[in-house]
Amino acid sequence: MHPSRAALCPAATEARTPVPYPHFGSPQPDSRQYPQPYLRSKGRSARGLTMSFTLPGDVRSAFIGRTAIAAALEVHGLAPYIWPATLAAAELIAVTSRMSPGKELYVSLRHRDDALRLVVWDQHPRHLNPDVATLCETRRRRALWLLAAVVDDWGGEWGACEAPPPQLGIKSWVALPR
Length: 178
Fold this sequence. Notes:
The protein is of the alpha+beta class. Helix content is 32%, strand content 22%.
């Protein structure tokens, strides 16, 4: 397996996951076998920007997420957020896709009360062994060092936590003030 596509989680299976975005020149797979990204924007409202979409769990999905978020911020007159928000989205999507490769990611972007909030929810399973859970969390935080530096420089906050039951997975979030 190519090291850049290896799972960050020590408990993740080593089996190679299907490639949802084939390389140029490779045979085109049946697109029905892969989850398709969709974009649902609620448009302009008195409450601000609200947008959510689902992406395949592949590091190349970071480009799609970054592009969709940049376009939404531009359309809603929030251009000052484009650089930190797209970097945050790309980092979160790339890292969370490596924590649970091949599983869908949910991305949510909201602007309210002069702050931008980005959430990436992955389907990473809960670890029963506390040592594996600690190692997994450490690897996730180390992989997000660039995100931490940008969010800190912007004066924002970020974090990751387990989803409340009955949901499964990890919610990673970024809050950027104006």
